[in-house]
Amino acid sequence: MDIWDKSGAARGSLWEALALPPEETGSLTLVGGGGKTSLMLALAHEAAAGGLRVVVTTTTHIRAVERLPLAGDLEELAQLLEVSPVVTYGVHWRDGKLSPAGGLEGCLDLADVVLIEGDGARNLPLKAPAAHEPVIPAWTGAVLAVAGLDAVGEPIGAVCHRVERVCALLGKPPEALVTPADLAALLTHPAGGRKGVPPGAAFRLAFNKADTPARRAAALEAAALAGEGCIMTRFDEEERGGTCWF
User: Fold this and answer.
1) Tens digits of per-residue pLDDT, 79-138?
2) In the beta sheet, which residues pair with residue 203?
3) What pLDDT is recorded for position 228?
4) Is residue 65 within 8 Å of 96, Cβ to Cβ?
5) Angle at alpha carbon of residue 168, lines to 162 and 171, rounded to 5°
6) CA-based, 20 to 30 A from 41: which of 7, 54, 63, 238?
7) What is the distance between the alpha carbons of residues 145 and 69, in angstroms, rounded to a whole number?
8) How far apart are CA 233 and CA 216, in angstroms?
9) What is the pLDDT of residue 227?
């Protein structure tokens, strides 16, 4: 995994690059596309390595991580956190995915860090939220909006989830090519990446898949336009999906 901050300087920690001390942030919700699960599990790994107890969960659906223990209620969660630094909180849904478990806010009383996946993107690098999403708890301490840099230079219609909403927010047709300015505009739009961010919650951006100099240049351009706290990330093949850390 490689991490860069908004200036392009290499950083050794996701939490440090985001300027979000995990023990103070408490809970973080990830939204968007292009690498949410990889980032969530990397954040969990870092926090656990620092001696913190971590819950990985969702307000929608996430794929179960086979090598992490799974709790379906708060009593079971408390028990598992006594023996494992990272626990997934959810209930089996279908196709290897989990749905939210009840009493989600109670995770804050049991763990030091609660990481929440707040929407889905059907494995596409970019999206705009539908009317019913994202599902961000009012008590979340921070929101991280994510986009995949592999969208840049590709037609909106080919790389975006909820194409019609992306086109409406950007004022462009589906055949238009995605630009770094589009990434910045979509992730910071109040009906895009900023949708549903609770008052007082920190807001950050992550441009993932910074695999080439051209993509890193695109991320720097998008970060400069966004005017928000931004990071760039690149995961190796074995790190994608995040299961290698558990």
Assistant:
1) 999 999 999 999 999 998 999 999 999 999 999 999 999 999 999 999 999 999 999 999
2) 143
3) 81
4) no
5) 130
6) 7
7) 27
8) 9
9) 86
Tokens linked to 221: 């351009």
Per DSSP, 82 falls in state T
3-state secondary structure at position 30: strand
Cα separation of 238 and 243, whole Å? 8
Q: How confident is the model over 26-69, as pLDDT tens digits?
A: 999 999 999 999 999 999 999 999 999 999 999 999 999 989 99
Give pTM, 2 decimals.
Answer: 0.97
DSSP string, 150-184: GGTTSBHHHHEESHHHHHHHHT--TTSBP-HHHHH
Using the structure block, give the residue that is written with the tokens 């050794």: 12
The 10 Å Cβ neighbour count of residue 1 is 18
Which residues have CB under 8 Å from 222's CB, separation 6+?
180, 181, 183, 184, 187, 207, 230
**Torsion over CA: 234, 237, 239, 240 (sign):** positive
User: CA torsion, points 110, 111, 115, 117, in degrees to nearest 10?
Assistant: -20
Burial class (CB in 10 A: 0-12, 13-18, 19+), 92: exposed
SS3 72: coil
What is d(CA 117, CA 88) in angstroms, rounded to the nearest whole number?
A: 12
CA distance 64 to 148: 22
User: Coil, strand or helix: which one is 180?
Assistant: helix
The alpha carbon of residue 87 and the mean position of all alpha carbons in its chain are separated, in whole angstroms, by 17
Half-sphere exposure of 154 (CA within 13 A, CB side): 16
Would you state the structure tokens that stand for residue 222, as one six-digit string?
A: 């998008």
Only one residue has tokens 């929101």, namely: 143
